Amino acid sequence: MRKLIFVLIGFFLASLSFADIPTRDYTTVTKAETTSAALTDDTLWDPDTNYRFVLQSVFISSTGAVDVELEVSNADVIAPVHLDSPGTFVYDLGGRPIYVGAKDAILTWTATILGRGPNETFPSVSILVTGYEELVG
What is the value of pTM for the model shown? Predict the structure, then answer.
């Protein structure tokens, strides 16, 4: 009987070694903005006090030629995005973090038109970022 109990305990402990990979429990946050005018350092994501943002994906769409920058304290979060014509830019690492901000850091974005003629209007530019906020102790 004692041997049977040890065997059962052994099987139970062995089954624990096949557990799934631990994951973080978080709520996805989505931030989105659209503009039809030039922007400089416009706030896109301002996390709660004592939190930092964790950026997981970036989607940028434009109806014309633009440069778009994502920055924290005037430092690029990703390389500046250059769209020569109407189009879409997607940056995603399959749920892995692209950028982890510092405590209370603010994510800003800048949109600059390229090669505008005298009768051209600023194209419509949309940005959508996803990620989550994490408490910093």
Answer: 0.78
